[in-house]
Amino acid sequence: MSARQGLLGGAAILDLGEVSRRVSPADWGVRAICRSSPGLSRDQVEAWPLGKLDNALVALRQRHFGSVWHCAPTCGECGGVYELNLDPAEMGFGPEHADDTQAIETHEATIDGASYAIRPLIVHDLIAIERCSEPEHARTYLASALDVPETALDEALESAAELDPLTNIWIATECPDCGAEQSVLFDPARFLAEEMARASDQVLSEVAEIALAYHWSEDAILAMPNERRRYYLGRIAQ
Ligand SMILES: [Zn+2]
Predict the structure, then answer these.
(1) Which one of 82, 111, 193, 194 is most buried, by most CB atoms within 10 A?
(2) pLDDT at 4
(3) pLDDT means per 10 residues in the chain (238 residues)?
(4) Strands 69-71 vs 181-186: parallel, antiparallel or unpaired
(5) Cβ partners under 8 Å of residue 73, min gap 6
(6) How far is ligand 1, taken at its centre, from the CA of residue 191, in Å?
(7) What does the alpha-carbon distance between residue 33 and residue 28 come to, in Å, rounded to a whole number?
(8) 75: CA distance to ligand 1 center in Å?
């Protein structure tokens, strides 16, 4: 995939920024990938293992905002906010696999003397449990999805996670102010949704500035490639 493919235009950034305030991070992640890859259906993306969605989101973010993730976790001890720069390439994220027909890998796990074919969690599972109002409902859903009794669920989930190393990555960090150590979850969907919301605010203010100077409609300005919008902003600033 070339660096130019799958770049979101102003209208898509605005939509994704707005929708990020209404839907869960996983649901948002699916929308972002479908929007940037029009050949993919929502059902196809929901059938991906979680790590495949995270990897696609990392690639989407790299095309828009660069490879280093600038995070700002809050220290659980002193409440201070500190800087954390992460490079997903060092965590194993990498080029996307174009092959979408690949079957999901399963492995045999023996739990309490019984044998189960365990598969990784898929995006559809995550969206389903995000919609559960009670934790017990989520457990019931997961046991049924993985086809194991609820008593075997915890071990089945551990086994499922081993099949999908790009999901649930925790980063060990240390607060520079008080020295407290804490683990931070690398959650591409949540992080990118927040970043896209800020980018959409930026697009809106650019549209307002260009409309004020040239009296073009919002639709016309949003339909421009990002570079052309920036060109007009540069003209206005001169
Ligand atoms: Zn601290």
Answers:
(1) 193
(2) 46
(3) 63 94 94 93 95 94 91 94 94 75 84 95 95 93 96 96 91 96 94 94 95 95 91 94
(4) unpaired
(5) 81, 82, 84, 173, 182, 184
(6) 21
(7) 9
(8) 5
What is the residue type of 216?
W
Which residues touch 174 (CB under 8 Å, ≥6 apart)? 180, 181, 182
Give the Cα separation of 93 and 51 in Å (integer): 9
Per-residue buried b or exposed e for 146-176, using 16+ beta carbons within 10 Å of the residue's own CB:
bebeeebbebbbebbbebbebbebeeebebe
Q: How far apart are CA 160 and CA 93, in angstroms?
A: 19
Secondary structure (3-state) at 118: strand
CA distance 29 to 24: 9
Threshold 0.85, pTM exceeds? yes
User: Among residues 167, 142, 226, 172, which one has the least CA distance to residue 29?
Assistant: 167
Residue 86 CA to ligand 1 center (angstroms) comes to: 19
Compute the distance from residue 166 Cα to the ligand 1 centre, in Å: 28
